[in-house]
Amino acid sequence: MSTQPPHPTLLIPGPIEFDDAVLQSMSHYAESHVAPGFVKTFGETLTLVRKLFQSSTPTAQPFVISGSGTLGWDIVASSLLEKGENALVLHTGYFADSFATCLETYGANATQLKAPIGDRPSFEQIEQALKEKPYKVITITHVDTSTGVLSDIKRVTEVVRRVSPQTLVVVDGVCSVGCEEIAFDEWDLDVVLTASQKAIGCPPGLSILMCSGRAIDCFKNRKTPPSSYYASMGNWLQIMQNYENMKPSYFATPPTQLVHALHTTLSQITAQGMPARFAIHRQASDKVKAAVAELGLTQLAANPDNQAHAMTAIWLPEGLAPPDVLPGLLKRGVIFAGGLHKEVATKYIRFGHMGVSVTSPGRNDIDKAIAALKESVTEAKQAKGL
Amino acid sequence: MSTQPPHPTLLIPGPIEFDDAVLQSMSHYAESHVAPGFVKTFGETLTLVRKLFQSSTPTAQPFVISGSGTLGWDIVASSLLEKGENALVLHTGYFADSFATCLETYGANATQLKAPIGDRPSFEQIEQALKEKPYKVITITHVDTSTGVLSDIKRVTEVVRRVSPQTLVVVDGVCSVGCEEIAFDEWDLDVVLTASQKAIGCPPGLSILMCSGRAIDCFKNRKTPPSSYYASMGNWLQIMQNYENMKPSYFATPPTQLVHALHTTLSQITAQGMPARFAIHRQASDKVKAAVAELGLTQLAANPDNQAHAMTAIWLPEGLAPPDVLPGLLKRGVIFAGGLHKEVATKYIRFGHMGVSVTSPGRNDIDKAIAALKESVTEAKQAKGL
């Protein structure tokens, strides 16, 4: 029996449903952020972040910082780029536009490589772009929460290493880390930034980054000072290293309760093993996608290669908008999200299938949601005479 | 009976002990950040922030953002100053140095007006400095957590309005908001920035700001774009206004559980009324200061006018360092903090007396801590043969 009160099942692409033990960790009693008990918890949490990314390279560096996922963009933009340097932004939806704006705020030149809605730039286009000018970083949204498009970060990185080996590969993994396959060391990634509230299954409020030794060196070799204070890797690097070495350290007060919750969820996730976790999310995603097809509905990400396993962005039948369907879902105890991509927001809905809703089959969340979707769409079509 | 497990009483200058209901709010079940339930909670929380600051001016604007208190400095530095503009930083300890570094990171010229340790710049010095060049902002650490020095922000603001009326008065209220008197409108302040984990009694992870209409106009009238993305007021202003008007809005996912906890604690604080809360903290502080004097100990803040009511920074007897005394306190169930001011860190300890430890007399925290302090200092002196 869950210790949580009855409530509609949250199946948006983050925040997601929480495990009871994770939520209980949020109520941890007050601790000093520099006392041995919390230092141990935070230090272990950073080591668990390495496991989450299947990384064992000592020069790679995890960061866990108070802030939302968006803060990760500022950390990259203000720490790894200097004014006038170039960033190639692969565009698969809403989040690339915002990341590009963030990069430009700090003085970088962001070039967006755009794909039609639901698609992603081709490997050939990426290779071509990389040959045109020197790029300090390439950014990839692993799963674009606005479209449900999955990028192939492994193959993109192979292209980068072949064509422009010094370009830093920066992955926005906010909606992917914890459910989509990522092998940080093996794939030779430089930065994966994420947030606590999606597939990691922790409440929102933590910006989490994994950085390669190459990325850290790039920061250390800057010619100009970093252009942010709170978002500068320089202010956090020693702090993270100290905590992982079980030494108290202070730059800003860490969010102690959220760190406890992250510790709990990462302990659960890594105990299961990452390959098993990825497989479970693939299976759930396959089930959802099959059900969507069976309902005669299509996805924004039309090509199966492009489809995220974290979520499904579903075109509504012609004549229906999210407000026609979402209340019917809620009535059946399920919360989906409306559209987010500005150009088509009124034409689709988003179904997140991550974390305990997928890994705890006893909850029956996914089957319940599939049934609710079927009934709600049917009901909405009838109400509109479609 | 508390629902929290037995644990040593945390009496550092933040984080502090939590009320049971506040901690229980941290375990709130998953909600969408744009669904009506959470939108109402967040909207009400913003209105409660106004009450916390005793502000009723509609043009004043509260912000509640995922991040630590430090983030508030970046918000000020990147939103309110443009490159080359001047900031006068009143120095009463560690935190002025850091705020000045943050201001300079974003291109401002920070001039520090320093006082000896335990003291604060005089009103005459401040007036003189303001007459020397035009300052866009003046920053004041209301309570410097490193020294326990209280600044008279009301009188400083009077000086500013007389000598340099357009200068924005920015108060670092991280260790003051919720226990030291602040009348935002009446005193004509421009920004008070704070964090959730001190006298407000919420777990750490929220950067909270109250900004005057003058400050917001200053942001809107910038000649150059803001130099941060996550810390730009521009990206949050509409979001905060929408939530307070009960309209969902998205820039970055808010930390939903922390916002619930803030809602709970601000509901408690404002129900009591701010003047009553300030008075209780003054009484507790007077009791602590009298006990410290009775022990023959002195404070870093020697002048009673300069002494914070949130905390007491206590010089240890000659020959004792924090590691001689803190374990004795812990043995007696009480946690104090060591020194933080770099020049004298090994010579003093810090006793935080804020929030439920002060407002819930049944807890007996302050009396227990005073007794533990007396015994621990006596024991440490005996051990050292002093």
TrEMBL record, chains A, B:
Modified residues (N6-(pyridoxal phosphate)lysine): 198
GO molecular function terms listed in the Swiss-Prot or TrEMBL record: alanine-glyoxylate transaminase activity; L-serine-pyruvate transaminase activity
Known EC number: 2.6.1.44
Keyword hit for Nucleotidyltransferase: no
An example Gene Ontology biological process: glycine biosynthetic process, by transamination of glyoxylate
Residue sites binding substrate per the record: 350
UniProt keyword list: Aminotransferase, Pyridoxal phosphate, Transferase
Cofactor(s) this protein requires: pyridoxal 5'-phosphate
Top-level EC class: transferase
Annotated ranges, domain Aminotransferase class V: 30-341
Coiled-coil parts of chain: none
Gene3D superfamilies for this protein: Aspartate Aminotransferase, domain 1 (3.90.1150.10), Type I PLP-dependent aspartate aminotransferase-like (Major domain) (3.40.640.10)
Pfam families: Aminotran_5
Matching InterPro entries: Aminotrans_V_dom, Aminotrans_V_PyrdxlP_BS, PyrdxlP-dep_Trfase, PyrdxlP-dep_Trfase_major, PyrdxlP-dep_Trfase_small, SP_NH2Trfase/AEP_transaminase
Transmembrane regions: none
Keyword Phosphoprotein: no
One of the record's GO cellular component terms: peroxisome
SUPFAM superfamilies: PLP-dependent transferases (SSF53383)
Similarity comment: Belongs to the class-V pyridoxal-phosphate-dependent aminotransferase family.
UniProt-recorded name of the protein: alanine--glyoxylate transaminase
Source species taxonomy: Eukaryota, Fungi, Dikarya, Ascomycota, Pezizomycotina
